[in-house]
Design a protein that fits this description.
The complex is a heterodimer of chains A (about 700) and B (about 250). Chain A has 23 helices and ten strands. Chain A has about 700 residues and is α+β, with helices and mostly antiparallel strands. Chain A folds into four domains: about 190 residues, no CATH class; about 60 residues; about 200 residues, no CATH class; about 120 residues, no CATH class. In chain A, a hairpin with a 6-residue loop joins β5 and β6. Chain A starts with a helix and ends in a 16-residue tail after the last helix. Chain B starts with a strand and ends in a 6-residue tail after the last helix. Helix content of chain B is about 35%, strand content about 25%. Chain B has a single domain, classed as P-loop containing nucleotide triphosphate hydrolases (Rossmann fold), CATH 3.40.50.300. The radius of gyration of chain B is 18 Å and the shape is globular. Chain B is an alpha/beta fold and about 250 residues long. In chain B, β9 and β10 form a beta hairpin. In chain B, strands 6-7-8-3-9-10 form a six-stranded mixed β-sheet, with helices on both faces. The chains are: A alpha+beta (about 700), B alpha/beta (about 250). Chains A and B meet through α1, α4 and α7 of A and α2, α3 and α4 of B.
């Protein structure tokens, strides 16, 4: 015999597509978030991304975007589900079912759906992350560092997200049941959410707000720091808010008014009006898609920008092999290196070496005050600088420059960049052994790629005067040499690299940011030098193959063949992580877009049937569907991509107030990424279009259709 | 059977209050087939929604079978919907996931009756309304007229005191409309059903014993059928014209 439970079972069976959509959406969003958070909290990743560093912040920022997007999209799927359920509940209530009866069935269904989907998503999220990672390791690069470990605490995030989804759906269910009367519930399924009025100025003002918010948000921290000497707290990011308001306005304008006027407005009147009548949900979905596309590209651009820049820097080097070492080290001599080269069948074709000194410089440094503010204080021993005599500079570079007595020059890259990385306000240099001082002033910039942003050049006599009596621990030697067939000398380079590390003492086991002069000044003032705190990246010879060591060791050699071959391995975790993030975000974009388009089909089934009766040709119907689907995928795609590309250009420009050749190459590489991803989105858009046309019984060829109507 | 006394209902739109029902008084006797007609905005559907307790009313009394319907709690209201009232809607309101017989039996299933007698009653109603041949079909597989006859059968499964019908022929062609009206006549004649129908359709209304004309939220005129159907329809059309003819 039939009872209420069996009736509900029969209805579920018959309407399984609606249930499947909600199950799939919850499962998918929990799966993505769990996979992301597993990766984000993985000790493998955390060990590589420096704490407080930009990469970690970017990863966190994109996670927040992805979580908001997935949360939004799941609640949206739930709202579609409730709209479907509303008719059922309305009929039950009209026929005398109590709210209690309906809510028991509904909450039972919601519990099974949410708990099952969340559990499945959370359980499979980590294996998914592991599988993608293993795929990277198999297809792209595999290093010891890439052995993936997971932190069980990551499940706390997954659990929290699942709980959020679970609670949100139950709150929505409770609101749904508590509707005041049957009429509202019954009408729920037919409810549209049109945006009533959009003024013509919405779009243009939106664009202006986007520019003001994006530009203002980006440069505001610099203004606070430079002008007000204040490190702004995180809440000041609210300056970006006009960007999102503007984005919303532009999307509303696009959906409701469109950007074309005159005849074309009438041509697309069905497309525009159908979108307008689902306006709020459409715009909300498009906003989420736009933000996720921007986040996905932000992550996806990381690899080409880093790769192109690093490759170009490696290729531009005028010498194949370069390294420097402290004079007090028992380092390999020229004959030792020649012997290693001979063992490996490598012929050294040219050799240059020269001495330089590490001197103390005076200058201003920041002293933190309360509330994120700071002030400058002058110090005679402000930091260390690498100073080379002009004759040695000329010998090493092949240039013929002259530095005036009492002056110094600073070295920039060949393209003139790096002036923001090198201090030129020194007036006193200090010999760190004898503590004798030399008065100097800045004369000019020089250009040489190998010494860019690190070296200063002194007049020969000044150099001799200031380095008199300087101990070997403050003297260093710079070595440049070339070999025959440099790109075929990987084994030699690897062997030499290991030998250099082996010949370096524990006093050289330091990261490049460790400033020995600052350390002495801090000790003298009885303060703790920050380089001796936990904040400083730790370098260990035991980790000589790690990306951290290769990136940050003060005496890291620059061997072209090694750097070229090791690039992917060195940055493997970074690259893979950001590719992973991009994949997750793009996957979310495609699913949200697809779900939104299916809603168009579900909502407009009757409208298309009526249009057909009014004589609309299959081609007209097809173009109308295509117009809506293209907007859902196209507008966020164009806006999100343009936004993030412009943002990247802005970052590149404001780094040094210019865009370098390698940055241009990186940005061109990003265009290829955009082209590739656009093709993927386009293919998915076509798939979705095909699916929606099938649901609405509109033939894509536009030539004929089969009328399924039985009445 | 049904008594409506001084019924008031208003809606608020912003700061403006619209009086939709302005002191309605009417009665419907047991076994009577009554229609309510009136121009758009006259308050027909609001009256029906108030009687069915789908929406609350501001003032007045509605009594059904001696029971005052004002201020009933949810549980009691559900019982009224289930046991005392049967509903027929313009857009049928059948569940697409259930076949015709299951849709008909739905009110009984909701009330917890899972007896064999229920199924027997469902089959009987299928026979009475001529839909036995489609009882295992789903709503998507049957015509509009068949859907509405299914809805009429469903409204009678619990032997309610009264059937409330909201524009039952509004979505149907003339042939199907005639079939649905015949269903109501069957219900009235064979099952002693009391029917209260809101309609625009003078043809459908002409089958009723009595037609209540509404205008601006109040009873404008009550016409009783004293002649044969065709003449009564003429009389209705005249009355409609008299009300400034908003009704087709």
């Amino acid at each position: 015999m039939k009872n209420f439970g069996k009736i509900n079972t029969a209805l579920r069976r018959k309407n399984k597509k609606n249930y499947a959509l909600l199950v799939a959406c919850i499962f998918f969003s929990v799966l993505l978030i769990t996979a992301y958070v597993s990766m984000m909290r993985s000790p493998t990743v955390l060990a590589i991304l420096p704490e407080g560093g930009d990469s970690r912040k970017q990863m966190m920022m994109i996670f927040v975007l992805a979580a908001i997007g997935c949360g939004f999209f799941t609640t949206y799927a739930a709202s579609i589900f409730f709209r479907y359920k509303s008719r059922e509940a309305g009929i039950f209530m009209a026929l005398g079912a109590s709210r209690g009866q309906i809510s028991r069935q509904l909450f039972y269904e919601l519990f099974v759906i949410s708990a099952g989907s969340c559990a499945a998503g959370a359980l499979l999220g980590t294996p998914l992350a592991w599988c993608i990672w293993q795929l990277f390791r198999t297809l792209l690069v595999d290093t010891q560092e890439m052995t993936l470990a997971f932190d069980p605490q990551a499940y706390m995030f997954a659990l929290a997200f699942s709980l959020f989804i679970f609670i949100s759906i139950f709150i929505m269910g409770r609101r749904f049941i508590r509707r005041t009367n049957i009429i509202d519930i019954v009408n729920e399924q037919r409810k549209s959410e049109p945006i009533r009025e959009v003024k013509p100025w919405y779009g243009p003002v939106g664009i202006v707000l986007m520019i003001v918010g994006g530009f203002g948000g980006y440069i505001a921290p610099t203004i606070f720091i430079k002008v007000y000497q204040w490190y702004p707290p995180a809440w000041t990011n609210i300056i970006y808010l006009p960007l999102f308001i503007g984005l919303y306005m532009v999307l509303i304008h696009t959906v409701v008014r469109g950007w074309k006027h005159g005849k074309s407005r009438y041509k697309n009147i069905i497309t525009n009006s159908l979108m307008k009548f689902q306006g709020k949900q459409t715009v909300n979905n498009m906003l989420v898609i736009t933000v996720l596309i921007a986040g996905a590209y932000f992550a996806a651009f990381y690899t080409p920008m880093l790769g192109t820049g690093a490759m170009q820097e490696t290729e531009k080097r005028p010498v194949d092999y370069a390294f420097h070492y402290r004079a007090d080290q028992n380092m390999l001599t020229r004959s030792d290196i020649t012997a290693i080269a001979a063992e490996e069948g490598v012929t050294i074709t040219s050799w240059k070496d020269a001495e330089f000194a590490v001197l103390g410089q005076d200058g201003q440094h920041e002293v933190d005050d309360e509330g994120g503010k700071y002030h400058y204080e002058y110090s005679k021993l402000n930091g260390a600088g690498k100073y080379i005599a002009e004759s040695n500079y000329n010998a090493m570079t092949g240039q013929n420059i002259n530095v005036e007595p009492g002056r110094f020059a600073a070295v920039l890259a060949d393209d003139g960049t790096g002036d923001n990385m090198i201090q030129v306000d020194a007036t006193w240099l200090t010999n760190m052994t004898t503590r004798k001082m030399l008065s100097v002033s800045f004369q000019k910039y020089l250009r040489y790629e190998m010494m860019a942003s690190s070296y200063y050049v002194l007049d020969d006599a000044d150099y001799a005067q200031i380095t008199a009596g300087l101990a070997n621990e403050w003297r260093e030697k710079l070595v440049y040499f070339n070999v025959e067939g440099a790109l075929l000398t990987y084994d030699f380079a690897k062997k030499l690299y290991n030998s250099i590390v082996d010949h370096s003492g524990p006093e050289c086991e330091l990261p490049e940011f460790y400033d020995r002069v600052e350390k002495i000044a801090a000790d003298k003032a009885s303060e703790t030098y920050w380089g001796d705190t936990e904040q400083m990246t730790k370098i260990s010879y035991a980790g000589r193959d790690s990306s951290e060591f290769k990136q940050f060791w003060e005496y890291m050699p620059q061997f072209r063949v090694l750097d070229r071959n090791n690039f992917v391995a060195t940055y493997a975790v970074f690259l893979m992580l950001f590719i992973f993030i991009a994949i997750i975000c793009f996957a979310a974009v495609l699913v949200i877009g697809y779900t939104r388009c299916l809603t168009i089909a579900i909502n407009n089934l009757q409208v298309y049937e009526d249009l057909r009766r009014l004589g609309a040709t299959p081609k007209y119907l097809y173009n109308s569907i295509k117009g809506q689907i293209s907007k859902v995928f196209g507008v966020p795609g164009i806006v999100g991509t343009s936004l993030i590309y412009i943002f990247y250009v802005m970052i590149m420009f404001f780094n040094d107030n210019m865009i370098t050749q390698s940055e241009i190459s990186g940005l061109i590489s990003c265009l290829f990424v955009i082209a590739g991803m656009s093709v993927v989105i386009w293919i998915f858009h076509r798939f979705t279009l095909h699916k929606v046309c099938k649901m609405l019984n509109v033939k894509q060829s536009g030539k004929q259709h089969t009328n399924k109507c039985t009445e | 059977m049904l008594q409506v006394k001084d019924l008031h209902k208003s809606y608020k739109a912003g700061k403006i209050t619209y009086e939709v029902l302005n002191g309605i008084n009417l009665t419907v006797a047991q076994g009577e087939f009554v229609a309510v007609m009136g121009p758009s905005g006259s308050g027909k559907t609001t009256l029906l929604n108030c009687i069915s307790c789908y929406i609350p009313f501001d003032k007045g009394h509605i009594t059904l079978g001696g029971q005052d319907l004002k201020n009933l709690n949810e549980e009691s209201l559900s019982k009224v919907h289930n046991k005392k009232l049967g509903f027929v809607f313009q857009d049928f309101m059948l569940l697409d996931g259930l076949n015709v017989l299951d849709n008909i039996m739905l009110p009984r299933i909701i009330s917890g009756d899972t007896s064999e007698a229920m199924e027997q009653r469902g089959n009987e109603l299928c026979d009475i309304f001529g839909i036995s041949h489609i009882k295992n079909k789903y709503p998507a597989e049957i015509s509009g007229g068949e859907k509405q006859r299914t809805a009429v059968a469903r409204s009678l499964i619990n032997e309610p005191l009264m059937i409330l019908a909201d524009e039952p022929t509004g979505n149907l062609d003339s042939k199907s409309s005639r079939t649905v009206i015949s269903s109501f006549e069957e219900a009235k004649n064979h099952l002693s059903a009391t029917i209260f129908m809101v309609t625009h359709d003078s043809f459908a209304a002409s089958f009723c014993d009595r037609v209540i004309m509404l205008k601006d939220g109040a009873v404008y005129k009550v016409l009783e059928k004293k002649t044969e159907r065709g003449a009564f329809q003429e009389e209705l059309l005249e009355a409609i014209k008299e009300m400034s003819g908003d009704v087709a």
